[in-house]
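mind reviewing this fold:
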Amino acid sequence: MDSSITSLTVGAMARFGQPASITVDVPPQELLGGGRTPAPLCRDLSDNVRMDCLPVVNGQQAIRTERRDARRRGPPADRPGTLDGRDAMGDRDTRSALDRHWAASAAGDQDAEHEIYHDDVITDYPQSGERIHGRRNLQALRSSHPAELDFTVRRILGSGDLWITEYVIDYDGKPTPTISIMEFRDGKVAHETQYFADTFAPPAWRAEWVEPMPHT
């Protein structure tokens, strides 16, 4: 790092209200007297988020943020991480769509499985470098798979337009841990990235520090 730059740690509000930390590099000549944060950082982040500067402690600058929406509309509804009930309702709808998608995948119902996708969805397989354009091609590919498939969903995590599913695909009885990353647009999947991992025997050299995972 250039010696002419001073690094300040800033506490900020993440998307869903959780604290986060970022580092801001500021030339020393821009620091105000007394070691306070430079004026450009002490301003509203947007129409909905106010930033308040706090004193420097041990060379670190804390910044307190507050959402105007939350003050105006009252406390979050239904669950943490939402500004109002609309966000929670949207997440419930998306989670229900995902549950239907994975249930249809396990049942081999190709039409129901692919209802979740936009017609112009893009699906990527980074490990093989393949990209599939469109829901029609995606459904045709999956319908033509030569193996007998079974699906076990371990967990689904997400909110808003980004959702991740950890699951296991059995190909003719061979389990393959899999990750699906779905990016939504207007209630349907616009982009999906999938990673497929083969299982492997644990190496002996790390045996003293590990234990078998519970079967789920």
